[in-house]
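Run folding on both entries below.
>entry_1
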Amino acid sequence: MLFKQQALLRQKLFVLGSLAIGSVLYLVARVGTLDRLQPICPIESRLPSPEPEQIPLRTLQFKRGLLHELRKGNATKEQIRLHNLVQQLPRAIIIGVRKGGTRALLEMLNLHPAVVKASQEIHFFDNDQNYARGIDWYRGKMPFSFPHQITIEKSPAYFITEEVPERIFKMNSSIKLLIIVREPTTRAVSDYTQVLEGKERKNKTYHKFEKLAIDTNTCEVNTKYKAVRTSIYTKHLERWLKYFPVEQFHIVDGDRLITDPLPELQLVERFLNLPSRISQYNLYFNATRGFYCLRFNIVFNKCLAGSKGRIHPDVDPSVVTKLQKFFHPFNQKFYQITGRTFSWP
């Protein structure tokens, strides 16, 4: 009897042992299979790979906030050190043209996460007193930025000031130069309008545009009048071309920037070798103001100052025609030099 019980017990142990060994072998085989499969198709590889960023600016909201605090003077030295912030010399400058849309262009380019703008016109290269302060003074006027960002400043007087091309060349001979232009007669009237408004604020009288733009003795266009002289774009550009090749200039259509800004901004992105980041989402038309405003994100929008888009005074049509005929040959030469044609009269 005892012999039978021992035999039965050995049989049960054998069965249990076989089951245990089988289970272990199954687990080993299963783990081995998973180990072999893992490198072939890990979980991460089944997810779409993120598009590689040329410029690592995905923490944009935080960075814009930090740079804003720096502009207000609220950021600490520790924050500056921790985030590797620097004041960089500009790698691109909007050199003109006055009343061509320089402020609008600068603000719109600032939509790009790789761009940081100098908020004020520095007037370093066109002002002898500022220039004498040296390049470190100029750098100190630049905003804080991350090393991979591009600093841009704008001072429209640069375009027409004789000393400026050589001075900028000495700082950086490979700098990118942006020129925004409008139809020359319209630009001249806009220039006059801004000066007129300033005179009226001070209760001062000012001549009518026609009297300034036309020489009363000869009845010809008065090229001594600054608003007219500034609109002779080719004369100023030729001076710049003594120092910089035409490839370092990009001409922006200021009239188109008002009516359809995105294509112009995309051309500038390409010229500056920036990844395309500005989209139609960032630009919306404000019917009240009559021009486009900027949308940085879901909570932060910005329109240009109310002084932009001033109403121009009526100008004698015969004077307008005379000016258009005067500018025409200069415009043709400007098209030839820059390779960009406009539908100006």
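>entry_2
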Amino acid sequence: MLLKEYRICMPLTVDEYKIGQLYMISKHSHEQSDRGEGVEVVQNEPFEDPHHGNGQFTEKRVYLNSKLPSWARAVVPKIFYVTEKAWNYYPYTITEYTCSFLPKFSIHIETKYEDNKGSNDRIFDNEAKDLEREVCFIDIACDEIPERYYKESEDPKHFKSEKTGRGQLREGWRDSHQPIMCSYKLVTVKFEVWGLQTRVEQFVHKVVRDILLIGHRQAFAWVDEWYDMTMDEVREFERATQEATNRKIGIFPPAISISSIPLLPSSVRSAPSSAPSTPLSTDAPDFLSVPKDRPRKKSAPETLTLPDPEKRATLNLPGTHSSEKPCRPKLE
């Protein structure tokens, strides 16, 4: 298990980002999806927790085979996806990633948002007070991102918002900029396979860090697109974008319903007050299962036919002797 805490500051308020994070996640998922790969939205509905209150539950499948490193592609099936489950009780969220093909693999992310510049060192005292972890600050303006994801229009050093007047951030901007908020993320990566654990866990954290950096840069760079939206408007945008994304990757499920009325009583659908645990299955995924109606391949005859001893003697085959009483094999 490898635990890290990430802190990402943005020139926004926590109230503003409630809309921004929903808009960013939907648009980012759509942009990163292509036919056969991307983010399929399976479920998106209201959720009520006895401890955290009302929220939203989403379940997604992230198809990403081509995005894996070569050493990982060699050991996973061509049709490969990670299941994402998220409980959004903004300004507190929980996200879990699991994979049925890799039952010993999981990512658990707890997020808290506060209006400060990342100065709260005790924000996760209830969740991980005694757990050793590395604290990593991510600077959306100055940290480098993978070249293939760079867009000048999404670079906070160059972008300036017309609606808010914020932008063109310079080194040290976190020390003086107002408003400012921080996204605190406690990320636990587990891959309990001897010989691969350290390598995989370190690789996953690198990927997580890149995604967090890119996503938060985009959320700010797209601020003029979502800044005037209401919650109802961003939910409609979310629904329409998710359906378009499913079609884009070649999946056509029933229309996604995002309503304000829970589908089941809260007593049935409530999550535990602490971080929920997603059961991991050791069963093979569907695409690895043998169809039940497939005829069994016969590699050998079901019965053994012995040669006729009289014909064997007539042919004078090796190991035979001509006599009035032909030899028969001893049957046990």
